[in-house]
Amino acid sequence: MARHAKFSNDDVIDAAARLAARSGPAQVTIGAIASELSAPTGSIYHRFASRDQLLGEVWLRTAANFQTQFAARLFAGAPRQAGLSAALLVPAFVRAEPIHARILLLHRREDFLQGAWPETMAQRAQALKSEMDTGLRRFTRSALDRSDSAALRLIKFALVDAPLAAVLPHLRSDEPPPPLVDGLIEIAFCATLDAAEKLLPRRKSS
Amino acid sequence: MARHAKFSNDDVIDAAARLAARSGPAQVTIGAIASELSAPTGSIYHRFASRDQLLGEVWLRTAANFQTQFAARLFAGAPRQAGLSAALLVPAFVRAEPIHARILLLHRREDFLQGAWPETMAQRAQALKSEMDTGLRRFTRSALDRSDSAALRLIKFALVDAPLAAVLPHLRSDEPPPPLVDGLIEIAFCATLDAAEKLLPRRKSS
DNA sequence: ATGCAAATAGAATGCGCGTTCTAGAATGGC
DNA sequence: GCCATTCTAGAACGCGCATTCTATTTGCAT
Lengths: 206, 206
What we know:
Two copies of one chain form a homodimer. Chain A is mainly α and about 210 residues long. Chain A has a domain at about 60-200. Chain A has helices at about 10-25, 30-35, 40-45, 50-75, 80-95, 100-105, 110, 120-145, 150-170, 180-200. The radius of gyration of chain A is 20 Å and the shape is elongated. Chain A starts with 8 loop residues before the first helix and ends in a 7-residue tail after the last helix. At the A-B interface, helix 9 and helix 10 of A face helix 9 and helix 10 of B.
């Protein structure tokens, strides 16, 4: 019925993702994507209604990819084991998919879309966020037998914040994190969970 | 001899800093600064040769401010005490000067000046970086009696990366970090230094 | 073969922002 | 009081980029 697309939807997203990972979302101009693909600028708009739609898609696809793996690890086995495995996903993800990792961890969501997100994408972003929130809450209950905000904060530090911190310098220099990084994450994870069990009384909801 | 300046050099930097902290360096346009000051755009250029010069100044002033305090704490007393005190400067700085903290910790240096830094500012930035590097190296020697890269990486995690991670969620939501955050930082700091003393043999330079 | 749907192709448009330019006003030394 | 100097004031310019518009091409259904 019609001419075949030379540049697929994913071709465009991939090109945008490469640019974003390399030099940040601000450098992802329609012109830059076009020349990365050797395509004319107009063709981009046959796939995406606007630059915002495209950049939002880049971010959402990457975030969903990471969160799926994270959630899978978080509930595979005994809490302590599974939690550590989830925490160690962070450096593993950085090594396996440095482009996606740089997109997700090196830039803030607001740098992709400065203004408001298009309605349907805002919903998808919100869905990802609640998914992560309820996952962490569920994990906190199973690991500490509590779900107050202090317990949640501790778990989030052990599972997300500390791994991110350990990996960040290597993301910035764009080199794979050395094995030592996994050690740092494990140290922080164990120390935080030990402290949580020691300091926080169980079965109390402050 | 001449007319008095209505807007001082620091007035301009402060206005730019407020805007950068509130909505990121990309939103710090000359027009935005001007309207923040109720000044005409032209006046900005009587103080700074270009937007790059101004934004660079914002970043450098903030970084120098933080680093001075950090270095002071790092060598005030016994290593373990002093190190913890330096690590805890991070949340203290966020509470005391949220604007400067957001500028320094929430955005990357490259988001302030995308291209190359003006020569003299590049030198000042480099000087700050080496100052921090040698400070950390000196601290590593005094705390662990080593200065190989593994020891340095551990110390940097305990002193910089982990505190940053603990504070980051609160910077994003623009609320002062609760006291619990100091606890997290202390836990990570002590665990990392304990592990370093246990795992790394002393007086070896790998 | 032929027409139409859906692409490619890239020039044209409009806008936002950094920077510069022109005018007018204040200040202090003479 | 007058001049040189340095500011305020804001309009004007030019460039880069998102978006749109006008061809032109392609391939399947008929």
